Amino acid sequence: GGLNTQSKWAFHGGDIAGVEAKLDYIQGLGISSIWMTPILRNKAIQNDGFAHHGYWVVDFTEIDPHFGSNQDLKDLIDAAHKRGIKVFFDIITNHTADVIKYKECHGENGDYLAADQKGCKFISSNELAAGKSYTPFLLENEKSVKFPEWLNDTKYYNNQGDSFWQGESAIKGDFSGLDDIDTSNPEVIEGLTEVFENLISDFKPDGFRIDTVKHVDIAFWQSFGPAVIEHAQSIGIPDFFIFGEVYDGNPAGLSKFTTEGKLPSVLDFGFAFNTRDVLLKNKPISQLAQLFDNDDYYRDHDSTPNELLNFLGNHDMGRIGHFIEQDLPNASEANKLRLSQLAHAFMFFSRGIPVVYYGDEQGFTGDGGDVDAREDMDPSLVDVYNDNNLIGTQSTTAANNFDINHPLYQTLQDLTKIRNSNVALRRGEHINRIIDNEKRIYGFSRIIQNDTNKKDFLTVFNFSNEEQSVVLN
After folding, report:
1. Mean pLDDT of 282-309
2. H-only helix segments in 297-361
3. Distance CA 212, CA 343 (A)
4. Distance from C-alpha of 23 to C-alpha of 18, rounded to nearest angstrom
5. For the chain, first and last CA: distance in Å?
6. Whole-angstrom distance, CA of residue 101 vs CA of residue 161
7. What pairs with residue 432 in β-bridges?
8. CA–CA separation, 372 and 146 (whole Å)
9. pLDDT one-digit tens code per residue, 41-99
10. Considering only CA atoms, which of 380, 378, 379, 409 is closest in space to residue 392?
């Protein structure tokens, strides 16, 4: 259930076979890897919406039938690999779908005891020690809904109520009611590691993007990351890569998970936040220089800043197109296009791996984060999508949006070709060269330090609204 093509909250019919059918479009853009939505079987309908996004998993071994079959996924990966395109799975270890209820918080039918109740108050460790606790229970028809079977046992969950995103609740609390797995439990670490090693064996993906990393015990990552990479290598995937989602713009906080946490990489929220600040909010250029000056936080025996994932917006926070519309509502349509082109160029040439959020290459804007940033590429029937102004086109999301002549699609094609033609633009050291807050000029070099034919690739960005002259030593 859950199909409603007119609701932004529901399933719209997109599937794995549809991704395979669009590989020409994806490859034409210059994309070398696809990061998919979570594709494991979800509890499709919960009290607060539909699992169109894939983050409410109940079966960690089967593809969600809304998206297709296990064979459909294998076919997609085979087809992508034949084109030299990698496929990454989005995985969740922090929680499962909302199945566990608490007698102190829910009635026998699973509804909240109070009609206006919106969650179950978090119980701290100190309160637990003093004797306060929740009594977990499962509805009769949901006692064996999760797979592997051990995930149906409430002893493998924290059962402390809803997170309020601070203190220990950030690790041990239910994520908006979703069942928070006790990732400090050695049996859980072993069990979930086996789950995802089996997924690698079955489907041969090229890596994982991991959801809600900072809400999981650090000891879990210290074991999980090295184990699944070693397993992938043992079955013939030598470059299996993992990057985590840590919703934090501070390099000191982000890097904790690539160093102490032993994950190879994270999504660089600091890059996204600072790029928006400078490009759209007129913040000092020196913010960008400071961001890259902090790259040493990420250097250790198995991580480098070049392996960070750069992005401008995403499925949670919203699109770069939305930020342009929101921060500079009076900009001309021509300038909105230039701003998006400039933002993408900055992402492609800075250190790190550029991530293009689907639809950005068609000028999608959206109305914000979450479901307001998850528009259809095929003709949409959702009114709040179709009234959006798109950047670089007169079209709307009510039309088919796979236009290879769109100026942003073509810009990304060009950026990809330039980046791919010079190894220094992919793997070179990022060195600050020009930091001019007055002229709003930022320049940096990318250099392969040990290259015998060393070249300095200098890239200069003008974040002002005027033509500028720069003299370099």
Report:
1. 96
2. 320-327, 333-349
3. 26
4. 9
5. 64
6. 10
7. 444
8. 30
9. 999 998 778 999 999 999 999 999 999 999 999 999 999 999 999 999 999 999 999 99
10. 409
Joined together, the tokens standing for residue 436 give: 């001019």
DSSP 392-438: T-S--TTS----TTSHHHHHHHHHHHHHHH-THHHHSEEEEEEEETT
- Fill in the DSSP letter of residue 174: B
429 part of the active site: no
- Report which secondary-structure segment, H or E, holds 460: strand 457-462
Question: Catalytic: which of 64, 174, 211, 295?
Answer: 211
Measuring CA to CA, which residue among 261, 352, 267 is closest to residue 35?
A: 267
Amino acid type, 434: I
pLDDT of residue 452: 79
C-alpha 384, offset from chain centre: 23
Catalytic status, residue 367: no
Contact 38, 16 (CB under 8 A): no
Q: For residues 181 and 188, give the distance between their C-alpha atoms in angstroms, rounded to a whole number.
A: 8
3-state secondary structure of 111: coil
d(CA 72, CA 19): 10
Q: Return the ∠ at Cα 144 (arms to 143 and 145), rounded to 5°.
A: 100
Residues near 380 by Cβ (< 8 Å), separated by ≥ 6? 12, 386, 397, 398
Distance of CA 218 to the CA centre of its chain: 19
Out of 90, 179, 245, 360, which one is annotated catalytic? Answer: 245
Question: Do residues 369 and 317 make contact, with C-beta atoms less than 8 angstroms apart?
Answer: yes
Task: Give the integer Cα–Cα distance in Å for 292 and 309.
Answer: 14
Q: Which two tokens stand for residue 93?
A: 């270890």
275, 277, 311, 326, 432 from 287: Cα distances, Å: 9, 8, 17, 21, 12
Q: Are 344 and 312 in contact (CB under 8 A)?
A: yes
pLDDT in tens, 331-375: 999 999 999 999 999 999 999 999 999 999 999 999 999 999 999
Tokens for 3, please give them: 């199909």
| CB-based burial, 301-340: b 16+ in 10 Å, e otherwise | eebbbbbbbbbbbbbebbbbbbbbbeebeebeeeebbbbb
Q: Are 156 and 182 in contact (CB under 8 A)?
A: yes
Rounded CA separation 257/275 (Å):
22
Say if residues 253 and 246 touch (Cβ distance below 8 Å).
yes
Distance CA 317, CA 124 (A): 29
